Amino acid sequence: MASTATRPIVPPADLESFQAHLNRSTRILALLGAGLSASSGLPTFRGAGGLWRTHDAVQLATPSAFSRDPGLVWQFYSYRRHMALQAKPNPAHYALAELAKRKEGFMTLSQNVDGLSPRAGHPASTLKLLHGSLFDVKCSDFFCSYSETANYTDPIVPALQIPTDESDPTTTSALQARELDISDSNVLLPELAIRDLPRCPNCKKGLLRPGVVWFGEMLPTAVLNDIDRWITESNTIDLIIVIGTSARVYPAAGYVDLARSKGARVAVVNVDRDDEPASGMYQGDWFFEGDAAQIVPEILKSVIGEITEMPDAAEER
Ligand code: APR
After folding, report:
1. Distance of CA 93 from the midpoint of ligand 1 (Å)
2. DSSP state string for 5-36
3. How do 265-270 and 51-52 pair as beta strands?
4. What domain of life does the UniProt record list for this protein's source (predicted)?
5. How far apart are CA 263 and CA 247, in angstroms?
6. Which domains does the chain have, with CATH numbers?
């Protein structure tokens, strides 16, 4: 009997047909979601990781949640910034960055705000962040246009320091274990005064807010325009690779159908066989079931070779 270590992750027939198509493809899209970063230790939104201390993560990602309780929303985002900074890009982030360097007609649309693709060296010109970034901040006042990119200060203000268990010498791992334990709602969050939250240095009036796209908000116009330009440059798209996303949130999920309408074959990489794109799977598509961190480098190998070096741009900061 073959051991698990030698068993191929992807069935050879699928791999062969996918790689033949990948090799001859000149216009390729990738749509990325939270599952890409799951094996870097960051929880996804829907499913087991989608709760943060009894709060539904999706319910906290709205402008009304921020107006109602900016302290709670900032604590959630401060925690996410902290966890994202602790996490490291995984082999799938590096594999996609390498594909972007080797295939000219490759464009990546990411719903992730965790900064791991940029840290893996994914060229910015071919990486469109549909939902913004945890490390961008902007003024929440409608009349002020202040914004900052690449703000990695953690915590962003002292009041947003994540409480740690001082009595435990292994603070980091203890903190992570405790914060990631979704059943642990016993650790009381401090009530924060508005004056302790990050304030806009420009208008001095508005609170700063995370530069992510919340439910009910428009996606960034410049990003959408860049994508439209790429899509309309040609009548065809050869392939769309849909990685680690439940593909339920529009307009991001709509790019699968758009690519298909231009002839693209669809390849899905997901741990959950039921998480197909809303329009389903067609003949000639591929479903690679399993962890993106293992599967993505494997299926892209015919173009990118083996991923060996893994520099993390965050360590050079
Ligand atoms: N490898 C591959 N896929 C995985 C892995 C993994 N290791 N772990 C989980 N997945 C899959 C899940 O099966 C699921 O299909 O990743 C997907 C994660 O789905 P969501 O949690 O819905 O995340 P995403 O699709 O990125 O959500 C889209 O919704 O809440 C908003 O703005 C947020 O950008 C986010 C958007």
Report:
1. 15
2. TTS-SS-HHHHHHHHHHHHH-SSEEEEE-GGG
3. unpaired
4. Eukaryota
5. 19
6. 1-42+89-131+218-317 (3.40.50.1220), 44-86+135-212 (3.30.1600.10)
Distance 292 CA to ligand 1 centre (A): 11
**CA–CA separation, 54 vs 261, rounded Å?**
41
Which numbered atom of ligand 1 lies nearest the CA of 213? 32
- CA nearest neighbour of 128 among 137, 142, 117, 141: 117
**Of the candidates 202, 177, 207, 175, which has an alpha carbon nearest to the alpha carbon of residue 192?**
207
Q: Is the CB of 244 under 6 A from ligand 1?
A: yes
- Active-site residue set: 131
Dihedral of CA atoms 284, 290, 292, 293 in degrees, nearest 10, equals -140
Helix axes 12-24, 292-304, angle to 10 degrees: 50
User: What is the enclosing helix (H) or strand (E) of 268?
Assistant: strand 265-270
Measured in angstroms, how far is the CA atom of residue 246 from the centroid of ligand 1?
A: 5
**Virtual torsion, Cα 95, 100, 104, 107, nearest 10 deg:** 120
What are the tens digits of pLDDT across the range 27-57?
999 999 999 999 999 988 876 666 665 677 7
Report strand pairing: 132-139 vs 147-148. antiparallel
Q: Is 249 in the pocket of ligand 1 (CB under 6 A)?
A: yes
CB 222 within 8 A of CB 153: no
In this prediction the pTM is: 0.90
pLDDT digits (tens, 9 = 90+) for 128-151: 999 999 999 999 999 999 999 999
Does 271 contact ligand 1 (Cβ within 6 A)? Answer: yes
Could you tell me if the CB of 275 is within 6 A of ligand 1?
yes
